[in-house]
Specification:
about 100 residues; alpha/beta; four-stranded parallel sheet; 4 strands; about 40% helix; globular
């Protein structure tokens, strides 16, 4: 038996959004086990996960160093979106980067 697919939330808003409920239902319909865990909660759900899907970590800005430390602990091979991509997005410098590329 493989581990669950963990959908990431946060302590401030631990429940799944409507779209995340749709994602969870689609995964479950395909026989996958889905769990929900806040990024700023215990690490155990992430350690045993088959995949981690970072979706709703909305309060990361309240503890950015802790958030980046949590990203460092995730296995990038099993994490969607990739931790490196999330880091690129954190500073919002990506907006300037994308503008320089013509977006």
């Amino acid at each position: 038996m493989t581990g669950p697919i963990v959908l990431v939330t946060c302590r401030a808003w631990p429940a799944l959004s409507a779209s995340d409920h749709c994602l969870a239902a689609a995964l479950q319909a395909r026989g996958r086990r889905v769990e929900v865990a806040p990024w700023n909660g215990p690490f155990e759900p992430f350690a045993g996960a088959e995949a981690v899907v970072v979706r709703a970590s909305w309060d990361y800005h309240e503890a950015p160093d802790d958030y980046q430390a949590r990203l460092d602990r995730l296995d990038p091979e099993r994490t969607f979106n990739a931790p490196a991509l999330i880091r690129w997005n954190l500073s919002k410098a990506h907006v300037l980067d994308l503008g320089a590329r013509g977006a």
